[in-house]
Amino acid sequence: MQAAGTPDTPGQPLWLDAEFARVVEFARGARLETGGFGWLGDDGVPVPDEAVHTWITARMTHVFALAHLRGLPDTAPLADHGVTALTGLLRDGEHGGWYTSVKRHGRNTPLELAGQPASFGKRAYDHAFVVLAASSAAAAGRPGADELLADVLETVERRFWSEPESACVETWSLDWEWRDPAYRGANSNMHFVEAFLAAADVTGDDRWLRRALRIAQKLVDGHARANGWRLVEHFDGDWRPLPRYNREHPDDPFRPYGATVGHWFEWARLLVDLAAALPRPPAWLVEAAVELFGAGVRDGWHADGRDGFVYTVDWDGKPVVRARMHWVVAEAVLAAAALREATGERHYDDWYRTWWAHADAFFVDRDRGSWHHELDADNRPSGTVWAGRPDAYHAVQATLLPRLPASPSAAEALRRGLLAP
To answer: Catalytic residue among 53, 62, 223, 394, which?
Structure first.
């Protein structure tokens, strides 16, 4: 473990502590009096007419549970606020499961429509984050979290986990009468790996570990390995790759065309975590993490001759969307930290320092708070893919996880007092 450094040394413990607290402070502004957490603009104020999104409320609940476990004052009520919204406002009381989002009363939304579903499907992506939020809140001892976790795991068991597919299906109708037969996604399944690791730690049920491994085997040891470690994101209902998916919408925030470099780093971290959690981990987990990391450096870093990571590349590794996303550099530093510990190889520490210096120079906003979520190819603030600053999850984890072991997951590790000095 590295020396504490100074508050001015990006990536070192004192700096990480201060940055963790600073991002959490900005995130406090997302609390909505009417329930849940809002989509924050660049000024730290919720966008008035934006819906209340389940993924944002769940991520914020996770963040505030971590902040409470970390000892930040007045964050437990914020975690509780999230649990309340996930138990009530965002949960479908008639059919079960969680809405993607609900309408929020604002300038253009009549009061009588507030709280109604703003979309007409139920997504695996949202349910994965409800599992993560409930697991973290349960580890933090927040009231109602155990019941929320049991509820969402039962929904995942009944509706999303597909035993024949060794993965989770993507989308259902609100009433569970229709299931999308034509699309399967790697992104939602990647987040289920993270969520299943957290759920296994809190519940003690290793079924979720086994399922996390099966997802990883399918998407990484199978498809990514066969594709030169350019991770395939989009599949049809039979898990055949869809390499041209969203070619006409290459900068989609959730389903972009091509290969998403940041997910290679995110998977690398999760594979190391999974290896640490399993009693007899297969050797390919860390091997694949190393390969994905290397591919991310090769195809993503300075890929267009300019500083930073491009958002996406095509299947030959050429940049497609050159915008720089804050979450990509956050996942890159986490993957470097994870592989530094897993392999003991010093070059990962070099990348860790390099990317933290980059994040500090370009993404960290000392004036308005939090991080710029998107920069253009010249590292100037932009908003073509992500408007505002709705997501504290990536920056908070980037400032916390390097000081925690790969297993157990973050909230449980904090509960056990495993934070490194």
So the answer is: 394
